[in-house]
Amino acid sequence: MTRPLAALAFWLVVLSAAPGVQAPLFRANTDVVPVYVSVRRGGDTMGSLQSSDFAVTDRGVVQTVEVVSSEAVPIDVTLVVDTSRSVVNSLPLFRTEVQAIVGQLQRNEQIRLITFDTEVRQILAMQSPSDRPPVQQIQLGDTTSLADALVIALARAHRPDRRHLVFVFTDGYDTSSILGYGALAEVASHTHAIVHIALVRPSGSDLPSPGAIGALASAAARTGGQLWPPTKNEGGLVAAFQRAIEDFRHSYVLFFTPAGVPGPGWHDISVKVLKSGGLDVRAREGYFGR
What we know:
Blueprint: H1 5-16, E1 33-41, E2 44-45, E3 54-58, E4 61-63, E5 66-69, E6 75-82, H2 91-104, E7 110-116, E8 120-127, H3 146-154, E9 163-170, H4 184-189, E10 194-199, H5 210-223, E11 227-228, H6 236-249, E12 252-256, E13 265-273, E14 279-283, E15 286-289
Parallel strand pairs: 6-7, 6-9, 9-10, 10-11
Antiparallel strand pairs: 1-2, 1-12, 1-14, 3-4, 3-13, 5-12, 7-8, 13-15
Helix pairs in contact: 2-6
């Protein structure tokens, strides 16, 4: 998850050009780690935090943090929609919710649409939102390739000038992926995207095993996202998406140059806000060093 100095220079130009953005000063080091952090108090996002308000540890070692607001950086959204036979009753809901979600996007945001059943299909390449997204192409398939679809959604080159939110509609079942549930957290750990997975009740059956649900929750948490509880109500998926993207729009991006820790391998990181008052702090759980 390290970032070249050229990319950091780009971030500084973009963010310092936005009014009210705190411009950090970086040392000339090519191994700088960015971490997106959402902070809420009650139901509201919390603004006006400074670098001194955050405490970050890398493998238990306290790090020196610079912080900027990420509101100036536009967002790319990938919607990943389950079209397998087990969600047949939810397909009309999915079409309606996708239409509503696209209508919520801002002018500088982009949208991509992927569906999955036995095969994984990109229905809409990443582009500016349209008044008429191709929701009619969300069509019923057969078996389920959830893990493969999530990997394809995440396998996208990182752009330092944009952020990436992956939002998945699914009942959580996987019957035909090459990869298993257990690989998802590992794959998610190697990406810069934030992953949210919204569950729906399967048609005529129960949710998958606790182990499968736990694997999906772990994959989302690794990125700083979350697993949303099942819904069959109209508007439930839209509400979950709205909460996820609002957190992302108003998140902070922290930068630190790892100090006092060996570089290679997985780094557990912890992010805390040094303010009292029942804060909900959400950030990715770590990164892979060189």
